[in-house]
Amino acid sequence: MKQFFTLLAAVLLTATTYAQIGINNENPDASAALDITSTTGGLLPPRMTTTQRDAISAAKGLVLFNTTTNTLQINEGDATTANWLSLTASTCGLSIGDTHQGGIIFYLDGSGCHGLVAAPSDQSTGIQMVCMAGYTRQPMLMEMVLAVEKVIRQGIRQPVAWR
After folding, report:
1. Strand partners of residue 74
2. In which band, very low, low, confident or very high, does the pLDDT at 162 lie, cut at 50, 70 and 90?
3. What is the mean pLDDT of the chain?
4. Distance CA 49, CA 52 (A)
5. What's the pTM?
6. Is 18 exposed, middle or buried (0-12, 13-18, 19+ CB in 10 A)?
7. Cβ atoms within 10 A of the Cβ of 65, count?
């Protein structure tokens, strides 16, 4: 009986030290937890809508196919604050709605690498407008700069006219 438990312990220890799993592969790569080899099929990740995706507590690095946006996505956030990045054909990896450099992307050009980012909160406090001495000789340009400064400082939501 003692020999049986010794043998069982040895088998269990040996099994837990070899953590790589190979599918159609007898020698999985040592750096991979899962190594799949196939010449006739690919990997099919879980597929779900945006609503279904948002209902789960997604671990950092979780990969899925979003059927609402038809994109492969990865969670760059964590289980409490997900940050889904769409993996698209763009070499930049940017998508509308992603966070980027402290803002939220709301427009991308055709390349998917250039666009506009909106700040998530008011950024008007502390902005200073500076006029260079060379521009003071051009009254119309100076008037435009002052009008823009007024819009920024006062938060005017109506167009400002200048002559």
Report:
1. 63, 85
2. very low
3. 74
4. 5
5. 0.45
6. exposed
7. 16
